[in-house]
């Protein structure tokens, strides 16, 4: 269906610099030859989130899967006996270019961008797990590539497809709590205490050099693969990077947020290797149309907003009359009230003020499923809910919080030019140097 592009051409076509700013949505995704035609999809990663994402599109033809771990590759490919198997996604994309329409990327964060960028340059539609990328710059590159080639993209923020988020967006945008000037977002997961080991050998089924991908070359270390890489700056971005795209998504969607102009963060002393035991971040967003300027507060690893304690004294109940869970969630503070929400619950506060409130009629259609939205848009045209324009901006904001934490500085952010205007140290973390043989 698409012209084959050699790996050499892909490597030579790496982006030399960031575009001046975000593109404007409005280009219809390219439709498949027929809505009834089964897409030919390749998977980068075989189990874990990658396996779940491949399963999410298993109504189509899974024709190839790549994974650096032979055991995981065999396990993940067992469901798809016709799929061709590869260790190196670069080889897979090069060899399969004429035989695939789309690519699902579910690797550790540090290889999201190289795999997705190669697929986009090959003019393949891409579904990529969150956070979209490992650096701010990578997120902008993927967004620009998707726009340039008019491809259908989706980031794996699966909760975005849930009904609850949609109803909260409708409440906020209907003005139920008035102008929103403050939002609090928190998550309970903890990713820390990552330590590299020495004098250990990679198991025979794992190609450690391929696993490292563009990251700094180092000897094999136990406790990194297959999951705890999230604790290491070289491969992940801790709790904020992992869950920010899920929980901050609701605020970005409901309040039309795009690029913060100022970001600060704090936490335990910075460690060069491991992500922190907790991180607190503050984002300042400018006015957007009818929305006033907004300050968003992030808390993770069990930290929560101080306002929550007082609100819980009201015994807040959700839309079904059940007590509100507070392990992770969002608090929107407006001129006329508040909304407390999480993945599946929502309530308006104070209770007495909203006792007789009638929510607006649903205006956001029920999702056909997060993965199905992507497949449907490829085949029929239209937009996905978390395309790389939207999710790229969300990822940029999330990752700016990690940059602010690692530098201990309040960042003044010029989004149009991808520049921290007041800190060369922070600017150096907007992107990273790739190891020889790897490219964006």
Number of helices, counting only DSSP H or I runs of 4 residues or more: 13
Q: Examine the coordinates and then state which fold CATH places here, giving the name of the CATH topology of the domain at 7-160 and 369-387.
A: Rossmann fold
Proportion of beta-strand residues: 15-25%
CATH architecture of the domain at 7-160 and 369-387: 3-Layer(aba) Sandwich
For the record, the CATH class of the domain at 7-160 and 369-387 is Alpha Beta
Count of DSSP strands: 15
Strand order of the largest sheet: 13-12-11-7-10-9-8-14-15
**Radius of gyration (Å):** 22 Å
How helical, in percent, are the residues?
Answer: 25-40%
Describe what this molecule looks like in 3D.
- It is a single chain.
- With 440 residues, the protein is an alpha/beta fold.
- The protein has a domain at 7-160 and 369-387: NAD(P)-binding Rossmann-like Domain (Rossmann fold, 3-Layer(aba) Sandwich).
- Helix content is 29%, strand content 16%.
- The protein contains 13 helices and 15 strands.
- It has helices spanning 7-12, 48-56, 70-77, 89-96, 112-121, 136-148, 163-173, 208-212, 238-254, 307-312, 370-380, 388-407, 424-427; strands at 40-44, 61-66, 84-86, 102-105, 125-129, 153-156, 180-186, 262-266, 280-285, 294-299, 329-334, 337-341, 346-349, 411-414, 419-420.
- The chain has a 9-stranded mixed β-sheet. A 6-stranded parallel β-sheet has the order 3-2-1-4-5-6, with helices on both faces.
- Helix 5 (112-121) links the parallel strand 4 (102-105) and strand 5.
- Helix 9 crosses helix 12.
- It starts with 6 loop residues before the first helix and ends in a 13-residue tail after the last helix.
- Mean pLDDT is 92; it is low at 1-33.
């Amino acid at each position: 269906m698409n012209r084959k592009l050699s790996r050499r051409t892909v490597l030579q076509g790496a982006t030399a610099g960031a575009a001046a700013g975000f593109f404007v949505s409005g280009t219809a995704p390219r439709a498949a030859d027929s809505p009834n035609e089964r897409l030919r999809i390749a998977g980068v990663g075989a189990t874990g989130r990658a396996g779940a994402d491949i399963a999410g599109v298993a109504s189509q033809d899974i024709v190839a899967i790549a994974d650096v771990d032979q055991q995981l590759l065999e396990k993940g490919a067992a469901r798809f006996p016709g799929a061709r198997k590869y260790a190196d996604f670069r080889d897979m994309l090069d060899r399969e270019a004429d035989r695939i329409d789309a690519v699902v990327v579910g690797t550790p964060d540090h290889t999201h961008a190289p795999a997705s960028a190669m697929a986009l340059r090959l003019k393949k539609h891409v579904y990529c797990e969150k956070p979209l990328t490992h650096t701010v710059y990578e997120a902008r590159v993927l967004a620009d590539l998707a726009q340039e080639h008019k491809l259908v993209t989706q980031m794996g923020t699966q909760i975005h497809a849930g009904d609850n988020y949609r109803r909260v967006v409708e409440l906020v945008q209907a003005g139920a709590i008035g102008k929103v000037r403050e939002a609090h977002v928190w998550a309970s997961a903890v990713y820390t205490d990552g330590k590299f080991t020495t004098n250990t050998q990679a198991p025979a089924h794992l190609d450690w050099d391929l696993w490292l991908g563009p990251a700094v070359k180092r000897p094999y270390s136990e406790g990194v693969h297959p999951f705890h890489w999230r604790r290491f700056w070289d491969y992940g971005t801790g709790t904020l990077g992992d869950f920010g795209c899920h929980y901050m998504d609701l605020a970005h969607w409901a309040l039309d947020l795009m690029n913060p102009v100022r970001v600060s963060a704090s936490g335990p002393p910075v460690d060069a290797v491991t992500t922190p035991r907790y991180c607190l971040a503050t984002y300042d967003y400018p006015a957007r149309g009818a929305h006033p300027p907004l300050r968003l507060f992030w808390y993770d690893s069990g930290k929560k907003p101080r306002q929550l304690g007082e609100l819980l004294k009201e015994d807040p109940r959700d839309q079904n009359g059940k007590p509100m869970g507070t392990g992770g969630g969002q608090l929107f503070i407006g001129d006329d009230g508040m909304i407390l929400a999480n993945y599946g619950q929502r309530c308006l506060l104070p209770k007495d003020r909203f006792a007789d409130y009638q929510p607006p009629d649903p205006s956001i259609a029920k999702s056909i499923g997060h993965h199905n939205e992507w497949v449907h848009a490829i085949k029929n045209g239209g937009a996905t809910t978390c395309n790389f324009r939207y999710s790229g901006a969300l990822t940029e904001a999330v990752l700016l919080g990690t940059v602010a934490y690692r530098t201990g500085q309040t960042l003044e952010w010029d989004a149009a030019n991808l520049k921290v205007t007041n800190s060369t140290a922070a600017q150096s973390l907007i992107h990273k140097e790739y190891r020889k043989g790897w490219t964006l």
